[in-house]
Input
Amino acid sequence: AQKVTQAQTEISVVEKEDVTLDCVYETRDTTYYLFWYKQPPSGELVFLIRRNSFDEQNEISGRYSWNFQKSTSSFNFTITASQVVDSAVYFCALSYTGANSKLTFGKGITLSVRP
Amino acid sequence: GAVVSQHPSWVICKSGTSVKIECRSLDFQATTMFWYRQFPKQSLMLMATSNEGSKATYEQGVEKDKFLINHASLTLSTLTVTSAHPEDSSFYICSARPFESQEGLTDTQYFGPGTRLTVL
Output
């Protein structure tokens, strides 16, 4: 069985602060994918990143960075110099590889960035 | 690329009526489409997985006669909520997974904007 835990439920920061969103997962598979999605107030889920279980390199994309550590089964997401537009619910998710693979979502973290 | 649309974006209906929600992948073909339901301030709950030309696979606890899914083509899937009742009011989201590796697309689920259903 797969499980994704996002222990933080709500985070509030002031603009320009850095913020890290935690994600811990459980799976028995050796090959899997990890994801982060953003859901702004409009409701649409926006794909941010997919990481293959074999690739433990950290990734940076602009103000976003991801830290994948297999040893601790964590895939944390950091937003540097946060902005008001970053306010959203962020979901971490896990899936097996394969065409019909389902996404197992965490409960989501509500991030509020205050001006 | 990777745009998924849903129609309608919101719908209000009377109890007992049926409502159809369309999910389209606009610029790619989808091997598989997924339907989710999301309650306020909660995570997404997978309802069913559908492949073009075959019957949908429903998650445990989801009534297949209540939530009819038709996946008519590689770009269109529909969800029909039959004889809707107030407890069916929710935010319904579909996603589509690209048919094959396409330039610029990651092999992942791309989500539609969602449909808010309110049953009176």
The interface with chain A takes residues 2, 31-32, 34, 41-44, 46, 49, 51, 57, 91, 93, 95, 97, 106-114, 116 of chain B (CB under 8 Å).
